[in-house]
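Escalated from tier 1: S-adenosylmethionine holo job.
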Amino acid sequence: MKNYEVKQVIKSRYSQCAAVGGVTTTCCCAGEPTASSGFAADHGLYSKEELSLVPEVSRSLSRGCGNPTGFAELQPGEVVVDFGCGAGMDVILAAHRVSPRGNVVGVDFSPQMIDRAKQAVLEARLKDVTEFVIADLEQVDIPDDFADVVTSNCVINLCPNKQAVYREIFRVLKPGGRLAISDVVYEEKINPDVQEHFQETWPGCVGGSLEEDAYFDIVTKAGFTDLHVIARHRLPPKELEEMACCPGPEFTPAPDTADLNAVQGKVASIKFTAIKPAQ
Ligand SMILES: C[S@@+](CC[C@H](N)C(=O)[O-])C[C@H]1O[C@@H](n2cnc3c(N)ncnc32)[C@H](O)[C@@H]1O
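Tier 2 regenerated the structure:
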């Protein structure tokens, strides 16, 4: 598939998921779909206190692999941009930390996801400190040197042109600004044939993943320094299956068991920070 075709499929799958509200099933290929209180809650990515701040519509549609606002050290008054905000889970948590003087902008190319996020900030009474932009992350309509912090949660693995996305993050950050990212990577070299099979189900959060060294090479080539891995979590079998068919098995078919077995123990979610050097 060409890059624009990959992005079309991803946009369509996540938009369908947003349209049905994400409340009917877990993001899980394993077994029968079951009622879910939301991916983030089910996987313990957020504390009870954090979850209590977030409306149901965002919780049930959350498809993250970490909790970037939990380690971004956000300060009151800061400006934050969330790349691939989905239904607004991290936008809402960031808004709580930076309000009332700060501002949070959520960017996503799925209009249906953005509609859900707008609904959520209204419910959370955070409309005054949040904005949304519908855009491809390779080219977002946000000025240069705009943000103190860019967050992103389980999104850039999906992007076929990761170089362009990291260049864009670098552009919108102020000099001295920082990023706080959760994403999925391969911890070891993967058989190219197996990787190709996963790429056929690219909208799942494994298909577009890179080996960690290649991923960090892209981050540093974009100009970032002080790259620091805060935590890593090797995906156990069930989580790997779930990740591989994100946003849910009714949208992205499960990969073959043989392919899943071939990458077992080699896929991790990582959390990291880095800095755009001050001029
Ligand atoms: C796995 S979901 C994560 C959503 C959110 N960060 C969360 O934690 O719930 C990925 C999101 O990234 C968006 N996305 C993927 N590729 C994108 C791109 N190239 N440009 C803009 N949004 C993109 C999808 O529409 C989807 O909402």
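The beta strands are 79-83, 103-108, 130-134, 147-153, 173-186, 225-234, 267-275.
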